[in-house]
Design brief:
Elements lengths: L3 H6 L3 E11 L10 E6 L6 E6 L9 E5 L15 E8 L6 E8 L4 E8 L11 E3 L21 H4 L8 E2 L2 E5 L10 E5 H12 L6 H20 L12 E2 L14 E2 H10 L2 E4 L11 E2 L10 E2 H9 L4 H9 L4 E4 L2 E2 L18 H16 L14 H13 L10 H15 L6
Parallel strand pairs: 1-7, 6-8, 9-18, 10-12, 15-16
Antiparallel strand pairs: 1-4, 2-3, 2-5, 5-6, 7-13, 10-11, 14-17
Helix pairs in contact: 3-4, 3-5, 4-5, 4-6, 4-7, 8-10
Length: about 425
Amino acid sequence: MKNLHILQQESVDEGKLQVRIRQKNLGTPVSGASVRISFSGDPDGNIEEAGTDESGNSQMVTVKTPPLEYSMEPNEAQPYSEVTVTVSAQGYREITVSGVEVLPNETSIQEIELEALDAPGNPIDNIVIPAHTLYGDYPAKIPEAEVKSVNDTGEIVLSRVVIPEFVIVHDGVPTDPTAKNYYIRYRDYIKNVASSEIYATWPDAAIRANVLAIMSFTLNRIYTEWYRGKGYNFNITSSTAYDHKFIYGRNIYTNISKIVNEMFENYLSRPNVTQPILTQYCDGQKVSCPTWMTQWGSKNLGDQGYSPIEILRHFYGSNMYINVAEGISGIPASWPGYDLTVGSRGNKVYQMQQQLARIAKSYPAIPAIVPDGIYGNKTREAVEKFQSVFGLPVTGIVDYNTWYEISNIYVAVTRIAELM
């Protein structure tokens, strides 16, 4: 591994970093927080000092990174810069996140939850993000059957494939009773794993293929009650030997986040198999897995113009298909199936307006609106500001991504979630 001085000398490209600050357990923004960013290992060398706006977001910060080509092929050189983010705000405990990974030409988002000074329990004041799985050394996946037998897993209690609101992640091997369990929203879990296991600089099709494999694997664990059926109180682990690498508190990337938002209802299936397929994979360099997808192999196929399903079928066979879950837990109202825009009317517009009006109480940058079921210019302005605050394309149109992000934030700020 190259030392910091050499890496900084080789920092010829640039990436972006934005820090987003929320109050723990409430999901509400923390404005006026102080954000200090420095290269990890060089705490005195400030990159930026900034504050957060009324939506809890820092300005976009430019960070020098190693050359782009380091992340485009297997390389002994570290392909990303590591920075340390320290956040303080009046009435909250200071927190430091070190090892935040910034890749060239991509935007990293570091979300940080602040705890009140009088919050009960043990404070979290320091988070260390370990090396990316393609760069560091982690245990290889222990092979399993891609379709689980009821006799192996215990009773299957789920009658259909449903996207869960939360995933309970055991931060260690299954048998470690000292490891913490984290309750993570499903989409946030997938974004975390994808950001930990592939590079955001890769072709879009390769990222989508890997995201589909991660989602299908995760939904197999949930559908079959794999760990629950063995008496454990979690859905999945953070061990690469058993599942995928989840890293508590790590940064994600805006392009990976967008892809997950577009695809989170999907999973992979085979004909006459009800379960989502347990799509195992390896890097294809440090570890060989002839019958699974390889991450670097998927990247190479993406370079050649393969589509996501073509990449997946190249590795898993021609009878692999992309499926859609039957339901989504924890949302107040499901996607209407069409875009809402100026001139739209009806119950779906009213439901969206109600949620947006409640969100505006926690995020004052979003204009307040009065729900009336009519999509007018005031609703469009509120939607545009919502999209800007939460990193979505600013179109003023409530498309699939915007609808579910409004729903997601509404649930976060109200703590209301009803099952479909």
